[in-house]
Amino acid sequence: MLHIKRTAAVISAVMCFSGCGNAADIGSENIIGPANELAEHSTPSVGQVRMPVFMVDFPDERFSDEAVSEDELSDWLFGETDSMAEFEKNASYSQLELSGSVFYYTAKQNMSYYKAFGNYEELAEEVLSAFDGELNYSDFDSDNDGYADVFTMTIAGQDDFFYGCQATWYDDTDFSLDGEHFYYYIVNDAQPYAENKEYFIQEMCHEFGHCMGLADYYKYDADSDFEAMNGIAGTEKMDEMEGDYSQFSKLMLGWLKSDEAKVYTGGKKSYKLSSSAEKGSCVIIPVNYKKGMSAEDVYTGEYFLIQYDTPEKNMKNAIPDDESGIRIFHIDAEICEDEYGGDSYFKYNGFSQYYDTTHTGRRIIRLVNDGNGYFHKGDVIDSSVSGFAWYDENGRETIGTGLIIKVTGDGRITISQTKTGGSK
Predict the structure, then answer these.
(1) CA atoms lying within 13 Å on the CB side of residue 232
(2) pTM attached to this predicted model
């Protein structure tokens, strides 16, 4: 879960459209990720990021003797295989290298003492200060902005106050160590026992996604059907914590190369998509495309995003070995500035004042044909397919796209317009 506080996105990618007017290849460099630009001191999504991880228990709430060692936890998080670091490396196409250190610590006071402050900072200051002689926190500031990139406190027991979340340092903003301030950090409630390894890593990757700027995609306060997307094609690390980050999330984090994201601009066009496990390949269909639209207008607007998945790397346990296919997301990535001068945010995240709490209106991400699996060769996506429509003024998917998408082979699609066109 996310504690929201964000800032404005600046996107400088230049869109170079093909002469035929049917498709756009966006240069050859990385597309600047809007999510990572939302907060001034968010965790970098590229480069070498180091993270200290503190395993915190209390005199009245201790980890049991079954807790795995610091070395084993370090392997879970930063090892070469089956680790958080491997997940982030795969997801980022080797553009993010995560490393760090793990330490156990018993707090000075019982758990209730820290809960009484109403925030996590009293405990965090104690924990960080306890290791100040052992660590130089400037070593954890990869972008040299005066803020440590991220740290984690894994809390013993299952207490509703210390739930798994990405937290933001709001109150004691003068606190610093080794000249470093602190902004985003992870509170992890997954427990360090051997049988919890998979969940421990999943939660860490989910909360780390928030630290880089991603929002939750699942439905807050839903008694049932809380997942934003369902079925075998509905996995997303920022939803129910399964599978990989989607190509949408990777686009937001700046992991897609500008010659991999194809923007459909009209007419009939065929595409060959590479597996999302190997490349940042996708096709974007923006609503109401107009010649000369800026990159910011496209990536932070309403669009469909098409990707091709195979059971490899981060998706190897998310879909069966004999499964692969096309999935299509309906995106609305509009960004709002905070009216009080704080960080900006995705307009349709679950905490936003603009979000429809019935969960039937606009959302950051939806799955076309939700719950019905992947699209395969021979499938046709048109107005008869659930969710393949633009949002109307009431936030309902009722406006026809005027488009037909045909899956012609493994990772191959053709997009064409009907006689009615593809605009609202």
Answers:
(1) 17
(2) 0.93
